[in-house]
Design brief:
heterodimer, A: about 230 residues, alpha+beta, Ribosomal Protein S5, domain 2, five-stranded mixed beta sheet, five-stranded antiparallel beta sheet, B: about 240 residues, OB fold (Dihydrolipoamide Acetyltransferase, E2P), Ribosomal Protein S8, Chain: A, domain 1, five-stranded mixed beta barrel, four-stranded mixed beta sheet, about 20% helix, flat
């Protein structure tokens, strides 16, 4: 089977990661997956405001995901939307599972992710960028987080859905995965699949996340050791 | 000894396996899960005997007892000062933390340390509830007047200071600049003329950007020797305006 952009079924889009792109953030990263571009900035750990939201025994990971007005072919209304709030929450949960929040009681780790250009898979790109930005900021973590979406088109499992593929797929299955600890921190599913489908898809997730992890590490090494 | 998965000074990202054995202990910025030792932060592996640790390349300052820090006074209260030390927690300098007796009812505390003053203090206590107390009892503690403030990456402070102060001593000796490095990544410096100060700031930034390079002290020594700046006793260039306190 050949895909719209000529990729193989288990092939990622062109993946480009650059760490340390924002000067004023503690850590930052830009991730490009095909035509989807996400920029993430991490601030902190820093004092948390409003103070009533502080947790006495651990830090809070706050994520704000936004899409730039010019990121799609139709203008996106700037600011929070139902969709961006959902993705912010999902990303925060996916990242918090990996961060040693207990090392910074009461503090907050603020992650801001902006989608500069969108072509499906923005949440996975956002999580990949945020993970690199967190590591770049020197935040203690249990593992890196790699995220990828799997779909099923005409009975074939396809990795990293792009553009129109998302509409043709019977399901959209984004997963965030810690490759060293072999644990899943986030999983969503939209569509209709069987148990067997899911097992096959998880195998693809594991395989693909190893590739993403390698790219993430290379980006950080390039940033700090030149 | 061959079961180590990483060599000394290897670059690691969080979650990378360092060793799969109970023979080794997880040190700074490492953690153990089962019998595997993982890296906790991005950095360089450091192996010393049976202890594995990671030297971080970036990070924020976490206050620890007995650290000498440079902080900015952000608020004056009835019995002390609130100081920003660049940590996730505010630090507090109580009246009991300064030398001599001060009657808070009769003195205006902002005359002692006002908002915006930079002070060199010592972390006296970090409680389990993350309240940080500073004291000014140490001989070195003081309020800065004049000079410049430079903020550097707190993870690079040990490199700027060097082994038992070798790097910073060399900078001071060669440029005649007065430099104080706080553990929290704030550097105060004052030279005889603005040119010297700018040169020293540039050198410190170079140390920060090349902290992973081996033999850095020698390289910096060359930079300092080639530096074109008026030495301590020399009369500064004409036309360069500078203030003396």
């Amino acid at each position: 089977m050949k895909r719209i952009d000529g990729r193989k079924a288990d092939e990622l889009r062109e993946l480009e990661i650059e760490a340390g792109v924002l000067r004023n953030a503690t850590g930052s990263a830009r991730v490009r997956m095909g035509r989807t571009i996400a920029v993430a900035g991490v601030y902190g750990p820093r004092e948390m405001f409003p103070r009533r939201l502080q947790k006495n025994e651990k830090a809070t990971v706050q994520v704000r995901y936004t899409m730039a007005p010019f990121s799609t072919d139709e203008r996106v209304r700037p600011g929070r939307s139902r969709r961006s709030q959902e993705i912010s929450m999902v990303a925060a949960n996916a990242l918090e599972a990996a961060v040693f929040t207990e090392d910074f009681p009461k503090a907050s780790i603020d992650v801001f992710v902006d989608i500069i250009q969108a072509d499906a898979g923005t949440r996975t790109a956002a999580i990949n960028a945020a993970a690199v930005a967190l590591a770049d900021a020197g935040v203690p973590m249990r593992d890196m987080i790699c995220s990828v979406a799997i779909g099923k088109i005409d009975g074939t499992y396809v990795v990293d859905l792009a553009g129109k593929e998302e509409d043709a797929s019977v399901c959209d299955f984004p997963v965030s995965y810690m490759p060293n600890l072999k644990k899943v921190t986030h999983m969503q599913m939209d569509g209709n699949i069987t148990k067997k489908d899911m097992e096959e898809m998880m195998k693809l997730v594991v395989k693909t996340c190893e590739k993403i992890h390698k790219a993430q590490k290379e980006a950080l090494e390039k940033r700090w050791l030149k | 000894m061959s079961d180590l998965l990483k060599k000394d000074r290897d670059f690691v990202v969080p979650g990378e396996k360092l060793v799969e054995s109970m023979e080794y202990l997880p040190g700074r910025n490492c953690f153990r899960d089962g019998d595997i030792v993982f890296a906790k932060k991005m950095g360089l592996v450091n192996i010393s005997g049976r202890v594995l640790s990671v030297i971080p390349l970036n990070g924020i300052y976490m206050p620890a007892r007995d650290d000498m820090i440079i902080g900015e006074v952000t608020d004056v209260q009835s019995n002390g000062w609130v100081v920003d030390v660049g940590a996730p927690y505010q630090a507090y300098l109580p009246l009991s933390g300064i030398r001599g007796y001060l009657d808070s009812a009769k003195t205006d505390l902002s005359k002692v340390y006002g908002v915006g003053d930079m002070i060199y203090g010592k972390i006296k206590m970090v409680s389990s509830t993350q309240s940080v107390h500073i004291s000014m009892f140490d001989r070195m503690c003081r309020k800065f007047s004049g000079g410049r403030i430079l903020k550097v990456n707190p993870a690079k402070v040990p490199r700027i200071i060097g082994k038992s102060g070798s790097m910073i001593d060399m900078i001071k000796r060669k440029t005649g600049c007065r430099v104080v490095v706080g553990q929290n990544g704030v550097v105060w410096l004052e030279g005889d003329c603005p040119k010297t100060e700018e040169f020293v700031m540039d050198v410190i930034k170079q140390i920060q950007d090349n902290s992973h390079v081996e033999g850095l002290t020698n390289k910096i020594e060359k930079v300092l020797d080639s530096g074109n700046f008026p030495a301590r006793d020399r009369v500064p260039d004409e036309g360069v305006e500078y203030e003396k306190d």
